[in-house]
């Protein structure tokens, strides 16, 4: 590029651009050029070539462009994110189903750039691949012909012509990498081959032009609330769950009690919610709601608590819609934040919190009842984190643990949104401690029996808001009378290894409360008692909705 030495007009000559210091051009004029003009100028203009290549000036300039084009701000809390971009491979050189040509199971999705310019180029590649610009331009041409106002909409709303929102793409890439890693470690194989089965349900990512929301309202205008959706489903479109083979494989987990099962899967596609499905509480404009998660078991059959998770394309707010009844926010605001908090990253926060719980084993894979069998599932009942060994708890806790004469009971509950029949499902795990449990272990002679059998139960369910306590007595637990021995139990004549666990539910909904009580056991067995009955404590645990709803 050759610049004139002087520029003339009717008033005389004015200084040439060549007289302007290169650094001034770099920071005063170049930020107003689009990305293609910038690349051309960098390659051809000798006058500012030096400024483009001076180490510090060049780094500062391209950091400025990273902020302008991709919203990567080196001054904010994630100050080092500008160093990273996503790996993009030519599809002809890759057999991967990923739109970026990278196998997310085996390859590094995120790569570190050597310079800010390399990072900017990397994100430009990501944007070109994600938006498939030729297809975008074709769609835009059709829209321009149909709607004279479309050009103005596109200029004001597409954030500099189809450039990705990099912070969300980085977060989505990290989330999926953590999920892939989790599927391969022991926590995911507590049920044999569960991680492999989970992987098989995930479907390759999708670019922007494959989205059904391009047709919404007859426009393809940019909707800022969908930034998180774009990022998450670029790597995987969600799940295809074969219900007849593996019914409880929802990535977001679930629960099962009294013959009702629930398992939330990520949406296979960012589909628009059909008209007439959402309740009146959503108001008008259903076309602004995007399905991102669904109850793989309840949807279609409308069991007692099927759930749909939807994102508002205007704000990014993630809400839970429950079977023609009501809507609840999927994330409650932090105490210090008001109702006007930015919710554009709700979907990412929801997913990041879930994978954190999986990694710490606050949620884990268990066998749960399903119809006439037992299947593996990610269960949402709170657990003791991996780095917090179980201890005997005092007071009301999210997870309670009590030990009575060598019998351990761990219990917790999960909130069931807007259920007609009950408000909370709880899980109780019962076992005899073994020598591997250390100082808490009691030998058969110390506790006074080799085996013991559950006879009855007594519960105290407190509604904290109402200040009332409801007491319940009954035989066994959900019709079962397990006989405990070290390392396992017997039930209905069958012998099992591991922990006896069951799930049940509280009657009626409450805002918050607690659950406690005891179970009566007999030493030996009911048929051959070896001593008087004794009580096994169930420590108090919370009946309370947590901040994140799944």
- Main sheet? 7 strands, antiparallel
What's the total helix number?
Answer: 13
Helix content: 10-25%
Which percent band covers the strand fraction? 25-35%
The count of strands amounts to 25
Radius of gyration: 29 Å
Distance between the termini: 57 Å
Supply the helix-strand structural class.
Answer: alpha+beta
- Given as residue ranges, the uncertain stretches (5+ residues, pLDDT < 50) are 1-9, 150-160, 212-222, 280-286, 299-303
Arithmetic mean of pLDDT: 79
Shape: elongated
Description:
- The chain is of the alpha+beta class.
- It has 13 helices and 25 strands.
- The strands form seven sheets. Strands 18, 19, 20, 21, 22, 24 and 25 form a seven-stranded antiparallel β-sheet that branches. Strands 7-8-9-10-11-12 form a six-stranded antiparallel β-sheet.
- α9 (166-184) runs antiparallel to α10, α9 runs parallel beside α11 (227-235) and α9 packs parallel to α12.
Task: Supply database-style keywords.
25 strands; 6-stranded antiparallel beta sheet; disordered N terminus; 550 residues; alpha+beta; elongated; single chain
Q: Gist?
A:
By secondary structure, this protein is α+β, with helices and mostly antiparallel strands.
Which helices and strands, and how do they pair?
Blueprint: E1 6-9, E2 12-15, H1 22-28, H2 35-44, H3 49-53, H4 55-70, E3 84-86, E4 110-112, H5 116-131, H6 133-146, H7 150-157, H8 159-162, H9 166-184, H10 194-201, E5 202-204, H11 227-235, E6 236-239, E7 254-257, E8 260-266, E9 289-295, E10 308-312, E11 318-322, E12 326-329, H12 346-360, E13 364-370, E14 373-379, E15 399-404, E16 407-415, E17 424-432, H13 444-447, E18 452-463, E19 468-475, E20 483-485, E21 488-491, E22 494-497, E23 500-505, E24 512-523, E25 534-544
Antiparallel strand pairs: 1-2, 3-4, 5-6, 7-8, 8-9, 9-10, 10-11, 11-12, 13-14, 15-16, 16-17, 17-23, 18-19, 18-20, 18-24, 20-21, 21-22, 24-25
Helix pairs in contact: 4-5, 9-10, 9-11, 9-12
């Amino acid at each position: 590029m050759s610049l004139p030495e002087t520029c003339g007009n009717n008033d005389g000559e004015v200084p040439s651009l060549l007289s302007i210091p290169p650094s001034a051009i770099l920071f005063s004029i170049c930020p107003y050029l689009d990305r293609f003009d910038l690349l051309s100028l960098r390659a051809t203009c000798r006058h500012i070539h030096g400024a483009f290549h001076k180490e510090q000036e060049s780094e500062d300039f391209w950091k400025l462009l990273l902020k302008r084009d991709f919203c990567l701000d080196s001054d904010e809390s994630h100050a080092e994110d500008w160093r990273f971009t996503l790996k993009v491979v030519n599809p002809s050189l890759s057999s991967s189903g990923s739109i970026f040509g990278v196998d997310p199971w085996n390859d590094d999705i995120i790569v570190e750039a050597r310079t800010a310019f390399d990072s900017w180029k990397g994100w430009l590649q990501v944007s070109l691949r994600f938006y498939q610009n030729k297809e975008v331009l074709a769609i835009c041409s059709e829209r321009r012909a149909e709607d004279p106002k479309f050009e103005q909409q596109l200029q004001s709303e597409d954030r500099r012509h189809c450039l990705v929102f990099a912070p969300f793409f980085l977060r989505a890439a990290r989330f999926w990498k953590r999920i892939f890693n989790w599927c391969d470690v022991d926590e995911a194989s507590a049920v044999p081959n569960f991680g492999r089965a989970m992987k098989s349900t995930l479907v390759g990512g999708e670019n922007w032009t494959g989205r059904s929301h391009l047709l919404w309202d007859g426009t393809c205008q940019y909707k800022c609330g969908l930034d998180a959706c774009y990022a998450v489903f670029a790597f995987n479109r969600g799940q295809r769950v074969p219900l007849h083979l593996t019914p409880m494989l929802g990535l977001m987990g679930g629960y099962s009690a009294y013959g009702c099962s629930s398992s939330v899967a990520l949406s296979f596609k960012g589909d628009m919610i059909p008209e007439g499905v959402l309740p009146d509480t959503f108001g008008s404009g259903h076309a602004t709601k995007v399905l991102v998660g669904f109850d793989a078991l309840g949807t279609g059959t409308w069991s007692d608590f099927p759930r749909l998770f939807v994102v508002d394309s205007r704000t990014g707010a993630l809400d839970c819609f429950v079977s023609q009844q009501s809507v609840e926010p999927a994330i409650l605001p932090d105490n210090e934040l008001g109702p006007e908090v930015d919710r554009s990253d709700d979907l990412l926060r929801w997913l990041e919190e879930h994978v954190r719980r999986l990694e710490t084993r606050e949620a884990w894979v268990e066998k749960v009842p399903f119809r006439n069998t037992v299947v593996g599932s990610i269960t949402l009942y709170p657990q003791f984190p991996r780095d917090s060994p179980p201890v005997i708890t005092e007071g009301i806790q999210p997870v309670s643990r009590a030990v009575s004469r060598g019998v351990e009971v761990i219990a917790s509950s999960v909130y069931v949104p807007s259920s007609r029949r009950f408000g909370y499902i709880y899980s109780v795990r019962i076992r005899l401690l073994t020598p591997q449990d250390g100082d808490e272990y009691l030998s058969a002679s110390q506790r006074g029996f080799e085996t013991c059998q559950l006879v009855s139960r007594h519960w105290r369910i407190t509604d904290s808001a109402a200040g009332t306590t409801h007491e319940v007595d009954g035989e066994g637990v959900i019709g079962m009378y397990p006989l405990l021995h070290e390392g396992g139990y017997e039930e209905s004549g069958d012998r099992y290894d591991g922990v006896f666990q069951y799930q049940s539910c509280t009657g009626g909904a409450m805002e918050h409360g607690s659950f406690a009580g005891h179970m009566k056991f007999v030493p030996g067995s009911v048929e051959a008692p070896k001593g008087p009955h004794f009580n096994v404590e169930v420590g108090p645990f919370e009946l309370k909705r947590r901040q994140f709803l799944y």
